[in-house]
Here is the input.
Amino acid sequence: ARGGDGTAANPYQLSDIYGLQGITDRDRRAGVFAQLSYQLVSDIDASPVSGWNSGAGFRPVRLAGNLDGQGHTIDGLFINRPSGHNVALISYWGGAVPSEPEIKDLNVTNASVTGGSQTAILVGENSGGAIGHHMSNVTVSGTVETETWGAGVVGRFHGNLDRSTMTNVHADVSVTENGTGSAVGGLIGEADRYTTIMNSFVTGRVATDGYAGALIGTLRNNNVSMTNAAWDIGTTGRSDAIGYTAFYTPTVTNTGSRTTAQMQGSLDFGLGFSLNNTIWATGNDLYPYFGWQYA
Here is the structure.
């Protein structure tokens, strides 16, 4: 890290792929669990990791705290761990009361992630428990290949005593499941206890012989909600938001499929909501993007 002490007030400052690989949920000075905060202070070229670890690439890290991208981009992330569990940039996202961890203002582009189960680009699984986890203003693009259970953004996302939220997230990820008997989703593979998706959309293909949803692969609880969410029915190849609901009933508001033409060049997808124009921007033949991406 270039600076900081890991506290919420003074996060560790990350400027390159080596700093990113150093994210941890342990205080190395004391050797104990620690809730630490990190922030990107520049864009990060992650492409050199393709030659790391005998071709396995980046080693997924554990985070028990916050990651603030500050509008920066991680480009070219490569992870090839086909027998691994929770394979993603962040394998496990934990935390501790009373604070609720947050990942925000981050772009991850041109990523390639291959795993065995709960595979995604950003997070394999969050801890849930007594605290909520919050993800906002995030874009991810690239490819995900998994044997079972996978997604574009988070493999398994859940709260428990408090709600976990995903707000203003765009996934343009090709998600492919090579095994059978599980489910994959454009945003989340498994949505469990008190999970909320808001103001988010998917434009990448979601492919499997099992269950697949444009937004969520499968539900694990009734207390899952989707509000102001959309997906491109042409590019995702999916007609349903959720691949497998079992006997659970989510709360769904202003959510549905759109054509490419309906989703490009406008912040209003015609579903009863408009994306916030202080956060999002768009242009002819473009999906919405964050205003700070091209400022």
Observations:
- The first helix runs from residue 17 to 21.
- The first strand starts at residue 12 and ends at 14.
- The chain is about 5% helix and 50% strand.
- The chain has a mean pLDDT of 93.
